[in-house]
């Protein structure tokens, strides 16, 4: 009985699998008409992140420069803050409209790499501390222990339901997770460009550089 059943299944697959494969390939080929969505969404995601990072550096210029010099040990901290702030701010605008995308991803990737190494590396991978998983460290385990203690204190001495009404308490681990993620997204944009239809780069290429 089982042998007959599997024979029927095998016969069905042998007969219909080529058709199914062709159908899937056809659908995937037709989906390429919307391939502009991937770089567009990457740009729309990164633009506000970079804008906030750059504009905050420029708005708090002196404090950021002192942090760059005293805590991070960067040379010429005032110049560094100015360059990073301007690159992130203009990079956000240019990514948003899709102008000079590949060019601007290069210094932005450099900024992310330096930030990951100088600011976040010693904290490990995780941006938010967790007590389990492959990226858990003694640091995050200690953070969760203290977080549980803080929650206990708040539950016993405060209105915990109101305190957590708009979100749960977490501990910022400040690892390289976000910087690495942004670096990878920028790297993808470097290789694929800003995409078709909804980018300045595309229309400039169509107007001036079309073969």
UniProtKB/TrEMBL annotation:
The keyword tRNA-binding does not apply. It is found in: Cell membrane. It comes from the Bacteria. The keyword Chaperone does not apply. The chain crosses the membrane at residues 36-54, 74-96, 103-121, 179-198. InterPro entries: DoxX, DoxX-like_oxidoreductase. Its main location: membrane. It is a multi-pass membrane protein. GO terms for cellular component: plasma membrane. Keywords: Cell membrane, Membrane, Transmembrane, Transmembrane helix. Pfam families: DoxX. Belongs to the DoxX family. This is Membrane protein. It comes from Methylocucumis oryzae. The lineage of its organism: Bacteria, Pseudomonadati, Pseudomonadota, Gammaproteobacteria, Methylococcales.
């Amino acid at each position: 009985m089982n042998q007959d059943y599997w024979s029927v299944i095998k016969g069905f697959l042998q007969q219909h699998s080529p058709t199914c494969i062709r159908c899937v390939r056809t659908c995937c080929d037709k989906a390429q008409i919307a391939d502009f969505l991937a770089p567009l969404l990457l740009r729309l995601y990164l633009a506000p992140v970079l804008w906030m990072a750059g504009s905050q550096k420029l708005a708090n210029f002196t404090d950021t420069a002192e942090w760059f010099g005293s805590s991070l040990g960067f040379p010429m901290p005032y110049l560094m803050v100015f360059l990073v702030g301007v690159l992130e701010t203009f990079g956000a605008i240019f990514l948003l409209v899709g102008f000079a995308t590949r060019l601007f991803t290069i210094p932005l990737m450099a900024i992310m790499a330096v930030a990951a190494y100088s600011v976040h590396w010693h904290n490990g991978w995780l941006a938010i501390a967790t007590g389990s998983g492959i990226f858990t460290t003694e640091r995050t385990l200690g953070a969760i222990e203290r977080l549980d203690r803080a929650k206990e204190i708040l539950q016993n001495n405060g209105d915990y339901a109101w305190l957590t009404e708009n979100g749960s308490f977490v501990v910022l681990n400040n690892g390289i997770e976000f910087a690495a993620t942004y670096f990878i997204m920028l790297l993808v944009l470097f290789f694929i460009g800003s995409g078709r239809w909804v980018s300045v780069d595309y229309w400039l290429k169509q107007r001036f550089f079309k073969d």
